[in-house]
Amino acid sequence: MGQQGQGWLFYATLLLWWAVSVHGLTRAEFFPFGKTTGDHVLEQGNDLSQQLALDKPVLFYDGKFDNIFPSAESTYLGKMPAGFGMIAALHGDLDTGDGVGKVYYRQDASPATLRQAAEQINRAFPEDDEVREREMEHLFYFNQDIVQLRNSFQLVIASAETTSYAILLYPRKGMQFASTAVGGSSQAMQAGFSKGLVKYLVFSTRQGPYYRITTERETSVRALAEETNSGKRGVWVYEIGTSPYFTSVAPGEVTDLPPDTGLESRVSEEATSKRYPGGGQQVTYSPYEPEEEVYRKEQPHQGPHHGGQFTVHTVQYQPQVVVVDDGDINVDGGFTLFVFSYNSETCANNRNKCSTFADCKDYASGYCCHCRPGYYGNGIQCVSEGKPQRMNGKVNGRVYVGNSPSPVEFNSNDLHSYVVANDGRAYVAISTIPARLGPSLQPLSALGAVIGWAFALEQPGYKNGFSIIGGEFTCQAEVTFLPAQEKLTIKQVFSGIDEHDHLVVSTTLEGRVPEVLRGSTVQIEPYSEIYQYSSNLITSSSTRDYTVSLDDGSAETRTYQWRQTITFQSCPNDEAARAVLPTQMLSVDQVFVMYDSNNELIRYAMSNKIGDVNGNTVHHWLCFCPEVENAVHQLCFCPGGQCAAGFTGDGRSCYDIDECREIPLACGEHSVCNNQPGTFRCECNDGYQFASDGHTCIVDRPVDHCAAGSHDCDITERAHCSYSGGSSYICSCLPGFQGHGRVCQDIDECQSARCHQNAVCYNTQGSFTCQCRPGYYGDGFYCSSERTKSQCETHRDRLLGSTEYGPQPVPGQYVPTCDSQGAYEASQCHGSIGHCWCVDRNGLEIPGTRTGPGRGPTVRPAVGPTPRPDVYPLPPGTHLLFAQSGRIEFVPLEGYNMKKTEARTVLHLPEKVIIGVAYDCVEKMVYWTDITSPSISKANLQGGGAIPVIRSDLESPEGIAIDHLGRTLFWTDSMKDRIEVASLDGTKRRVLIDTNLVNPRAIIVDPVNGNMYWADWNRDAPKIETSAMDGTNRRVLVKDDLGLPNGLTYDPQSSQLCWADAGTHMIECMNPVQGDRRKAMGAIQYPFGITSHGKNIYYTDWRRDAVIMVDRQAGTETDVFLPQKQTRLYGITTAYAQCPSGKNYCAVNNGGCTHLCLATPRGRSCLCPNNALGVSCVESEGGRF
């Protein structure tokens, strides 16, 4: 199988279908057939076949064939798959011996027929490059004619230079049978593709791949005439062979049908019969416009349509009943929006999306999360009642002061906030505000207003912002200063609670503010602000007065107007939560503002309370009337009045319950109970503070978090923690890094021309190196065309000294010997005493290698690459490594740019198909997967041959990743459908994941944070998943709007996970924690592997046979490298000059584990290999040790 000159069989068969519509495929839409077209006719009878020699070979799986055998043979009924290559258009007992039915077949290269085939293929694969008529080489066509109660169908095989397609056509009225007789019983007929037997080991064979179109049920056979994968009913298209590399049979991608009259009427009747709660309206997809790149969860990306192709409105999944309130959607100019509810979404598979302190509840239309008693929030994020809340973030701005023509600009200034939740007091501080701007920002206590609203003290019956919408929302405010109408825009994006339980916020200021002179103080009067609530939108407005006191004692009262809009995403499934909330009023008093010019720090403080819009305090006789919905009164005059919770009485007069007196243990030890109308609060005594549960008071002893390791500064390789007394500390980035200390990013020193003009700069984590260009000599900071002495030469010449007769050694003294490049010879000898020894590259003696007189040291021969003129060891610096069929090549990087002229082959492996590559920066080793053996191997990039790592129990290893800290390797196997891990020598092997995988390929690990990511390009349901590196906490990151996600890369500096998709023809990125998915590059062709370095993404492309460089931030292609050998490129990785900074618990002493140590976000897991029977192995999972 797989060799030119071999042949294969095509089988026909039978079908039953009662046609009720004429909107499907008709016999008239077949490819032309019959004697008038030059067809051959298969000899009539049963179990017959004939050979047809092809003018050009057909590609089937990974083989090429010159001969095919149209056949009506029924020998293999019930014995599928067969032991030879076969396409079964419909496999059944096909007998034409009565002279009524006929089987036609022929080759055809006529333009009209080729054009018809190209149209079918383009319609089925709208995301792929258009197949043009001139690219098609020939067709093989096979037709079973319809007579009486027999089936009529067509099989067309269309071939281009590198791809062959099978087109199967099943007309409604031409399909009469769905089953066939097999051994006295009736079985559903089969359609599919079988590769047949393939070689296994040396002298044996086994069954190769078998792709089934139908199942064991007759309904799947009947569906052939009713459904499609090409956008036209009854027409099915498959990619059945590709060269030079074949993965699997690929079905057409358009499973939805264009609307027809009959179908539309049925849908219309169905839709009008449904009732939508809330008086909603049904809206549908608007036609897709190719030039408009729109990506919505509600509207899957359909890809551009090729010119002249059949227009197909594809829908990737079927939504449920549509419920839309008229006021929620703005429909302009005929544009319609498809809105849907996730009826299939339940708590069973989404419970992990809720907070740890929340419960999940199912509703008729989906699920919602609700915080448990003792916690408040929106269910996605919950915090403990009474627990102080911290916020951190960055402030960026471009602000004009007074009449100044130039703005004050600032970036990434730190914002820190602290809220005492028990009394609604909020503190906000912003650092590094220049003196030109600082005094004029004092009136803007509004910068902390939304924080105060989020955690305001709640009056009974009212809720603060966090209780309603949680910690993920966007606030946009406009400040208008009177009377001059200066305007300032404030945008604050709240990204939720991070791993340190801090709320994260990003703030941007832009506009103009009135000037407040230096030395002036500002006093802000108490104010109130009305908040109005609707679905996913909150608005507020207020007018605020402030007094500016000058140094001369004079004062001036000024005013500004404040308008604010808050947008958020609520849970749509809980009808009670979706009800319009009452209008509430935020009352703000005790406002304090100050600008510290010495430290360039501005501070705000305020007390916040949320309650009645009329500003009334809650009286002790509060009650409500059950007969009046949502009615709350101070006095009840209705029958059956009841006191509200927290109050007691007869329903007409209600009195507050003093819980602090009635319930002595309402608060725990070391706390004070503070009674409030309708409720109570607990406050810790002096010297105590709330524990993490928000209820227990613990001793507030000073803690040196830096020494204890409980600080939240970045890792020690990037940041320094400084103890500042009490329990306080300061985080600061180390030299070579920038940031606020909690997150530090590497500074690319190469961007500022640190090296000599004749040197190349290589950026490293926290530092950089300089290397003189070829032809120049020096340390990189200074380079000269004149070669300077090496360390060995300097050492030697210093000992030799100099006389008028030239260098003369001192008698009896050891003098080192240097090679032609100036390096120390590996073996050094002392001529006077006769001793010899080995030295390292610095000339230092290697212990244990010294020998006595007359014996030379045992010097290991230098390990070198395969002796080929086109194979080179890897030079210093950072490089791209990529696989190309039987070789691994490298492209040096100069900064972030490819030095294309210096690309070389680092490893030559003929007759291998290398798919994935990974690099171990510690031992300078490259690891790769090979699907021909199959095996996983490694080699030293400084020279040396291939070293097998794993050679057993593999079928199709593809993706591979290295944990350089824990010294483990991870890989995917797309035939065994599993993810495994082993130590770097191939021992201690363990299966991590072997469920719900179909075609796993790309895999990467983030060892510092303990995460693993992989892509499954299953055409029916592609997805990108993540888990801890021990396989626990598995979850789907992306499943919508994916096609063929082939490659993955993760940049630890920006925390960006990026993937290359050959189906959507895009590169996309996201922060796995925040889920902020975005397109990095569109309109690419057929990406396979992907890697990243700094701002750039590099990917291999099958269509272009190239390595392409993309600026991730600009979203543009910046360079292309075309290898000399123009064949498909596979995996690609970055080989760093130095290992990325960072540590995990497995980096030291194997984490204390006996066998496998696998990092997790919480620490590490100790796991045993699968073959650990009889081995002393101890397992422990998930904790910190």
Which radius of gyration do the C-alpha atoms yield?
A: 37 Å
Helix fraction by DSSP (H/I, runs of at least 4): under 10%
Coarse shape: globular
Number of helices: 9
pLDDT averaged over residues = 76
Unreliable segments of 5+ consecutive residues: 1-23, 260-344, 617-639, 802-806, 859-870
Main sheet makeup = 11 strands, mixed, barrel
Number of strands: 80
Domain Thyroglobulin type-1: 789-859
Domain EGF-like: 656-698, 702-745, 746-784
Protein name: Nidogen-1
Keywords: Basement membrane, Calcium, Cell adhesion, Disulfide bond, EGF-like domain, Extracellular matrix, Glycoprotein, Repeat, Secreted, Signal
Question: What is the fold's blueprint, element by element?
Answer:
Blueprint: E1 9-11, E2 40-41, E3 52-60, E4 63-71, E5 86-91, E6 103-108, H1 111-124, E7 138-144, E8 153-159, E9 163-169, E10 179-182, E11 185-188, E12 190-194, E13 197-200, E14 204-207, E15 210-212, H2 218-226, E16 235-242, E17 250-251, H3 261-272, E18 358-363, E19 366-371, E20 375-377, E21 382-384, E22 389-401, E23 408-420, E24 425-430, H4 449-454, E25 457-458, H5 465-469, E26 472-482, E27 486-497, E28 502-513, E29 521-524, E30 527-534, E31 537-549, E32 555-568, H6 575-578, E33 584-596, E34 601-611, E35 623-624, E36 632-633, E37 642-643, E38 647-649, E39 654-656, H7 659-662, E40 671-676, E41 679-684, E42 688-690, E43 697-699, H8 705-708, E44 719-723, E45 729-733, E46 737-739, E47 744-746, E48 759-764, E49 767-772, E50 777-778, E51 783-784, H9 791-800, E52 827-830, E53 835-838, E54 879-884, E55 887-894, E56 897-898, E57 904-908, E58 914-920, E59 925-930, E60 935-940, E61 947-950, E62 957-963, E63 968-973, E64 978-983, E65 990-993, E66 1000-1006, E67 1011-1016, E68 1023-1028, E69 1035-1038, E70 1045-1051, E71 1056-1061, ...
Parallel strand pairs: 1-4, 1-5, 22-28, 25-34
Antiparallel strand pairs: 2-6, 3-4, 5-12, 6-7, 7-8, 8-9, 9-16, 10-11, 12-15, 13-14, 16-17, 18-19, 20-21, 22-23, 23-24, 24-34, 26-27, 26-32, 27-28, 29-31, 30-31, 30-33, 31-32, 33-34, 35-36, 35-37, 38-39, 40-41, 42-43, 44-45, 46-47, 48-49, 50-51, 52-53, 54-55, 54-78, 55-56, 55-57, 58-59, 59-60, ...
